[in-house]
């Protein structure tokens, strides 16, 4: 991920015969702090989530499918598209004010868990 937009974070994860695991709050540097606005959503094939920006940073764990992340470094910035696929999770940091959308480009379900360090996050719709 490039520019002042999204940032792909590295994190420790583990795997065994049952699958994978990770500690997303620790990887985002929020361990021991209050997490606000934590939510998990699914995306059916072709579904789009997002098309918005926030007034606070957001961290997103993407997993379980093929996704495209559409984002701009600012509301008027050039469109950037990142393709993500695989069975391992990806953790993204989305700074405040960065327009973003997630599209399930695969044939199965995809999932994301999003969280912020603020309880109240203002979301403004935008067209990506």
Question: What can you see in these coordinates?
Answer:
The chain is mainly β and 128 residues long. It has one domain: Jelly Rolls. 3% of the residues lie in helices and 48% in strands. A hairpin with a 2-residue loop joins strand 2 (13-16) and strand 3 (19-22). The radius of gyration is 14 Å and the shape is globular.
Secondary structure layout plus pairing:
Layout: E1 7-9, E2 13-16, E3 19-22, H1 24-27, E4 36-43, E5 48-54, E6 58-63, E7 67-71, E8 80-84, E9 90-94, E10 100-104, E11 110-116, E12 123-125
How is this structure best summarized?
The chain has 128 residues and is mainly β.
- Span from first to last CA? 17 Å
**What Rg, in angstroms, do the CA atoms define?**
14 Å
Beta-strand residue percentage? over 45%
Q: Got a strand count?
A: 12
Number of domains: 1
List the main descriptive attributes of the protein structure presented here.
single chain; 128 residues; Jelly Rolls; five-stranded antiparallel beta sheet; 1 helix; 12 strands; 3% helix
